[in-house]
Amino acid sequence: MSYLTWQRLTLVALCSLVLTWLVTLVMERGGATPERVPWTVLVVCAAAGTSALWLGWQVRRYVKGDKPGLDPIRAARTAVFAQACAYTGAILVGAFAGYGVGLLDEWSHGPRREVVISALLGAVAGGALLAAGAIAERWCRHHGDDDRGDRTEPSTA
């Protein structure tokens, strides 16, 4: 399993932003009415981010030797969950930011302004999920692991 890199997360967020921005423009020009981002997005991102941080903290304690009874499989699953949270957060940041940016030209219209604000709140929630996942994944690394973002073995030549 390779580690998270900020370059990869940024690329995922930018691709999501551009794609959603283009779809929003096409849909708006086609006459579609934009919908507000549901408040449950904030709740789900907060719950998943909190879970990732709590589980990651348990693994961090295990890696430091403070919690010797933790199952290594649970630690591996926590690392995978943390990465999933980070990637999902990157997608949500880009998607909601692209949605909001696509509707910015309608800022003066009251109902559209509410949609833009809800999209930006969704992007903030996605950013919090991304950060929580990245922090938890970092806590799951072993002291001997390198910080390059991959696990390539040194050459013996």
From TrEMBL:
Report whether Transmembrane shows up as a keyword of the record. yes
One Pfam assignment: DUF3180
Q: Which residues cross the membrane?
A: 9-27, 39-57, 78-103, 115-136
Originating organism:
Demequina muriae
Full protein name:
DUF3180 domain-containing protein
- Mind listing the UniProt keywords for this protein, alphabetically? Membrane, Transmembrane, Transmembrane helix
Look up the coiled coil feature and give its residue ranges: none
